[in-house]
Amino acid sequence: MVKYSREPTNATKSCKARGSDLRVHFKNTRETAFRLRKMELQSAKKYLEDVMAHKRCVPFLRYQGSTGRTNQAKNEGNPGGQGRWPVKSCEFILQLLKNAESNAEVKGLDTDNLVISHIQVNKAMKQRRRTYRAHGRVNPYMSSPCHIELTLSEKEAAVKTEQDAKAPKPSKKALAKFLRSGAVSKTA
Q: Using CA atoms, how far apart are residues 169 and 24, in angstroms rounded to an integer?
């Protein structure tokens, strides 16, 4: 059995999926996964398909060196406007989401009510190739694969809190302003 970094709080209402040593760039995949946190399953799948069609972009927040700016990134909430369209990362994460969705169906969960409660991308061991340089030298030509794991959980039903009939207590600042206006306080 494979160990996950975080176990779901309610194992009966959640399902998991993971991929190890995937030949896809770690940095692009990390930014894509970070964007999907706490998103509903259907909206996450739609978002990834839109990124692959270049309708929306993935805002790059941590690994943003030499990343170009685009208006789509500003619409996604990145104040710097830096974003990309990592198609291969989206394909791998979309496959994992579909895998987790089928795991949920097998468990008998409601697939329309699933939320990505946990998604994590880790660096895997680099794979080595070589590139040939001038004057007979050889340099490494490494790839940066990654491990991806995610957990889908059913949304908790919102519990309504009982409203107190009391009026909220005014702050000290509001009370001082009220007293300065010449009104008589009820405590005196």
A: 56
17: β partners:
150
Q: What whole-number distance in Å separates Cα of residue 93 and Cα of residue 153?
A: 17
For 18, which DSSP code? E
The two most distant CA atoms of the chain are separated, in Å, by 94
Q: Model confidence over 20-46: pLDDT tens digits?
A: 999 999 999 999 999 999 999 999 999
Rounded CA gap, 17 and 8, in Å?
A: 12
Neighbouring-strand partners of residue 140: 130
C-beta separation of 95 from 18 below 8 A: no
Distance between CA atoms of residues 124 and 92, nearest Å = 15
Q: Which pLDDT tens digit goes with each residue over 121-158?
A: 999 999 999 999 999 999 999 999 999 999 999 988 77
Give every CB contact of residue 65 below 8 A, 6+ residues apart in sequence. Answer: none
Write the CB contacts of 55 (distance below 8 Å, at least 6 apart in sequence): none
List Cβ neighbours of 61 (8 Å cut-off, separation of 6 or more): 31, 34, 78
Short-list 75, 91, 71, CA closest to 28: 91
Q: Return the structure tokens found at 162.
A: 């009982």
